[in-house]
């Protein structure tokens, strides 16, 4: 009989109290003095990189979305479900997005790669953006594992557990690429009411990124971008970003970008963050103004998801 040797990197190895049972999760919220939580998956980030059958991939996502609604159903609105929508087949993605909205899901996320190998902002995905705008369902890009064809190979294939640190630190590059493609293809002018969220890759970098995009937009290279305004203006109108509780540098970035654009995410129960995020969050918020604290602790995320 084959027995897997524990590595400490598996989901169950790090599945602490409240990570798999909704009643336990509510108890954990009480312990941490948290009123509500928006739920994104952990195990659900694993199968899409390996599933080349895009119709089957959507079936998996639909099963997860229906399960998550059930998971949150007896929480008096404290556990809030967000859908996973693969967009490799845009027609099926739109169909599942509309079904998930009817089921009570408040938003959705996509992976940082697409099996069609088309950028997130590509016009083929316009029907998904149009539906998201119509349904007032914020569109998020969330990090995940990636197919081998999507992983950068400039240093060889660094995809084993032995390079887990490197992969985790650089994994946000794929999210940044997908996000930036929304500007390249003019998504924000086509869909001025679409809400976009950058998820779980930290937020301290966004100040540099917006300034860099604005600078290139105003250079001769900006002629390749079908946008009426500077990228930072769209960000301050239509985008939000989640920061980590241990990002003390946010105290300098938030006032520059806008206090109403940021909220915090625990990343619970992922293994790449320590479980003591509440003390870190307190340390971060003590560095912010009163209005900045109010925004990052809850006001901004409720506004983003239309629950304010």
Structure description:
The radius of gyration is 19 Å and the shape is globular. The protein has helices at residues 22-32, 54-72, 90-102, 126-135, 164-170, 172-184, 187-190, 206-217, 231-238, 250-257, 277-285, 290-304; strands at residues 37-39, 79-81, 83-84, 108-110, 139-141, 196-198, 239-243, 262-264. The longest helix has 19 residues, at 54-72. The termini are far apart. The protein has 12 helices and 8 strands. The chain is an alpha/beta fold and 308 residues long. It has a 6-stranded parallel beta sheet. A two-stranded parallel ribbon has the order 1-2. α2 (54-72) runs parallel beside α3 and α3 runs parallel beside α4 (126-135). The mean pLDDT is 92. β4 (108-110), α4 and β5 form a beta-alpha-beta unit.
* Radius of gyration from the alpha-carbon trace, in angstroms: 19 Å
| Sequence stretches where pLDDT stays below 50 over 5 or more residues | none
Distance separating the two termini: 54 Å
- What is the structural class? alpha/beta
Dominant shape: globular
Kindly state the percentage of residues in helix: 40-55%
Mean pLDDT: 92
Percent strand equals 5-15%
Largest sheet: 6 strands, parallel
Trace the largest sheet across and list its strands: 3-4-5-6-7-8
Alpha plus pi helix count = 12
Tally of extended strands?
Answer: 8
